[in-house]
């Protein structure tokens, strides 16, 4: 941790602001995909470590849906198509 603090102390205010904006841009983008695409904020799982497990499953699902490129729509539309079409679901899951 001390090395990171020393590195940050060497940055100019402009460089530090740019790094922070880049980091938060990535964080906000991922959160938006999880909330809108997977409705993560609506999840009420509270038992022991289940919330963390489901977060991991959602991340895997997002990655699988984003890497499937034959259907040019967003994550939510791909998710709905996979629910209705088992051939497409197999394509997403197994990258056929």
Q: How is this structure best described in words?
A:
The longest helix has 26 residues, at 13-38. Helix 2 packs parallel to helix 4 (75-84) and helix 4 packs across helix 5 (86-94). This protein is an all-alpha fold. The protein has helices at residues 2-10, 13-38, 50-67, 75-84, 86-94.
- The succession of helices and strands, N to C, reads HHHHH
* Mean pLDDT level: 82
Low-confidence stretches: none
H/I helix tally: 5
Range of strand content: under 5%
Q: Using DSSP, what is the number of strands?
A: 0
The gist of it:
With 96 residues, the protein is mainly α. The chain is 75% helix and 0% strand.
SSE layout and pairing:
Layout: H1 2-10, H2 13-38, H3 50-67, H4 75-84, H5 86-94
Helix pairs in contact: 2-4, 4-5
